[in-house]
Amino acid sequence: MIISDWSDVPDRLASLSTQSHAGTLFGANDHQWRREPPITENELAELESQLGVELPAEYRTFLLQVSRGGAGPAYGLFPLRRVEGRWRWEGDGADMTDMGTLSRPFPHTEAFNPAEGLPEPPDEDDFESEEQFNAAEDAYWERHDAVVCAPEHYIGLLYLCHLGCAYREALVISGPARGQMWADDTAGDGGLRPLREPDGSPTGFATWYRGWLKQAEEQARAR
């Protein structure tokens, strides 16, 4: 079900910001419960024209009714900003979004790991000198990063937030998993995986955001 009415969310965020323990919740020191203003219909039209694709309904209505970024899961939603006539998302890891390929389909529907099949890192005990080991290690990680960071793995993914330690979560914009939230665990060689609900169904943007909001309210009340 597509949730298009976000009218309750601004008041819930405002209420959270006034609670004495809200600042102790994970990520709150970064977003501080602030939300940037929503975008207008004209701004959304310009954004989607630049991207060459319509954003998934739950996220586009959130942009129109709630906010273009700020208070949200983990360290907050990457803010959407217009810089010199071009729209872009900003934040730690927001640049992982390839704006030029969001209209191209993300091909996956199940978890996958770009690092799968790569050899293990070199073992220092296998080398006669530290210099040889360092050279082998540098060569290994250069190859590793070339494979794992290859752009084709991330087309159609819009990165929305980071969880720390280079772990991030993204919204699929195009392809068979359009509208689903995915976790990027490649920083720990864990690959990419769809977020799922307890019943196994895919997590959409609205469920993801509202789930975080409900949990934040429960945690604030319990402290």
TrEMBL record:
Domain of life assignment: Bacteria
Protein's recorded name: SMI1 / KNR4 family (SUKH-1)
SMART domains: SMI1_KNR4 (SM00860)
Species whose genome carries this gene: Actinoplanes philippinensis
Any Pfam family the entry gives: SMI1_KNR4
Domain Knr4/Smi1-like span(s) in chain numbering: 38-211
Gene3D superfamilies, per database record: SMI1/KNR4-like (3.40.1580.10)
